[in-house]
Amino acid sequence: MSASITWLGHNAWTIDSGGSTILVDPFLSDSPTAPVKASDVKAEFILLSHGHFDHLGDTIAIAKRTGATVITNFEIGEWLNGEGVASEKIVGMNPGGGVKQPFGHVKATIAHHSSSLPDGRYGGSPLGFVLTLDDKRIYFACDTALFSDMKLIAAGGLELAVLPIGDLYTMGPVDSIEAVKILKPWRVAPCHYGTWPPIAQDAYAWAEKVRSHTEAEPIVLEPGGKIEL
Question: Which of 33, 63, 32 has the alpha carbon at shortest distance from 47?
């Protein structure tokens, strides 16, 4: 089964696979780099890593408009229900848990970060995601620091790893190279950089370091760019 993955800027992605469209962290309408607005996208599923505004983004509006199922942590799921997202359209998880969906399997991984909601409430444990689409495993690290247990995520092999490189709020270029060494993906794409000046990075210089220090193939996209799996 083929899959197409499109970068929508920051940590927002859309995945088209097996007849389903999955959004990851749909920060769109207020994003300075997203090539589309929330009203432009379709979705059957939304993966939401944590509660910060630049990841929660347009989740509520998109979920209500499309009827998409939101897969997130338990606490955010409860909060979304209070904001009008139907309970049957919420899958609340915790790190280490997995769930089958029509498009494949989702496993929630740990992410070393923080999480709070727009009203200041505790946003539960931040998550990364490993998606298994047919025989392809894709890792979205989402907002995280480098951590040694990435070696456990690598154990099943990875077609693609999506890693933040912006620094300041997440790991930066140097630590992301170490993450690539641990994860050993076939291909790796950067995200969570360039949205605002404090997280500006030279992604092409990063890609050269990936090539020289790892065996992975780096893929640098402009917002709207696609990866075919």
Answer: 63
